[in-house]
Specification:
The protein is of the alpha/beta class and 277 residues long. It contains ten helices and twelve strands. The structure holds iron/sulfur cluster. Iron/sulfur cluster binds next to loops.
Length: 277
């Protein structure tokens, strides 16, 4: 099946509403060094199109629960550079016109703004991840993804078309990106209605890449294991997330955290409440 039930590895800390997971591509050439897909996707950082995506989408959609929504995508980005030539995600969005099936786009790419015309006509919202505003740091953390400035420009363009937008502040890495929490929320506040934040929760291979790239900063971080996930100490996570919550309050944005279990949410975690219904 192309579309599956969203499964956050059975995490009891996941507060997402029931939703479907759907990605036109396998693998993700954004190649973020902290990414977890290298734990379970072969050739994780090479994006390649799935076969007969639009045909399979058309076949599977009628059997789905319409009170849920398509989360697009969770183990890849629907806008890898390849999408600029292939237009596969755009073809999916074109097919969804008139289907009245809600869609939540998750991306790190400004290419999403190309599809503002389609997204404005859909019950859709866009969740844009920004981890740092520093282009040099972003180029190391997320080497295949467009720089943060371009992501902000995409949010501006989407907002102009009245497409609801969400800031995904994920992951927050103490010593690397935490000093930017307030400035990232401020930079996005005019275009977004909601912020979802997450502290870094690396899988072993992502943690190894982080330690290799940032040995000095990572040396100060300790993690404890809970199921398949590694967590920073609770007090440290709570302090970081309280800063996000305060910044959101200051800008009139709703706030939630992803799989943190430290409370303080003022809306649905992934921002899907912003999808027009
Ligand atoms: S954009 Fe997401 S799926 Fe793609 S490499 Fe980065 S963290 Fe992984």
């Amino acid at each position: 099946m192309l579309i599956s039930e969203f499964d956050p590895w059975n995490s009891p800390r996941c507060t997402c509403p029931p939703k479907y997971s759907f990605g036109p591509y396998t693998g993700c050439s954004h190649a973020c060094i902290y990414c977890y897909i290298s734990a379970y996707v072969p050739w994780p950082f090479t994006a390649r199109p799935k076969r007969q995506v639009v045909r399979r989408l058309a076949r599977e959609l009628p059997g789905l629960d319409r009170s849920r929504y398509l989360s697009m995508a969770n183990s890849s980005d629907p806008y890898p550079p390849l999408e600029a030539e292939m237009g596969l995600t755009r073809r999916c969005l074109s097919f969804l016109q008139g289907q009245e099936f809600p869609v939540l786009i998750l991306t790190k790419s400004d290419l999403v703004a190309r599809d503002a015309d389609l997204l404005a006509d859909l019950p859709a919202a866009v969740s844009m991840t920004i981890t740092t505003l520093d282009p040099r740091l972003a180029a190391v953390l997320e080497p295949g993804a467009p720089p943060p400035e371009q992501r902000l420009e995409a949010l501006t363009a989407l907002h102009r078309r009245e497409v609801p937008c969400i800031l995904r502040l994920d992951p927050i890495i103490p010593g690397l990106t935490d000093q930017e929490i307030e400035s990232i929320v401020e930079a996005s506040a005019s275009f977004c209605g909601h912020v979802v934040a997450s502290t870094v929760k690396p899988r072993p291979d992502g943690l190894a890449r982080l330690r290799q790239t940032f040995p000095r900063e990572m040396e100060h971080l300790s993690f404890s294991r809970r199921g398949t996930t590694r967590y920073l100490p609770e007090e440290q996570r709570r302090t970081l997330l309280q800063r996000v919550a305060s910044a959101c309050r200051a800008h009139g944005l709703t706030y939630a955290a992803c799989r943190e279990n430290v409370g303080g949410h003022t809306a649905v975690c992934d921002g899907s409440h912003l999808i027009p219904r």
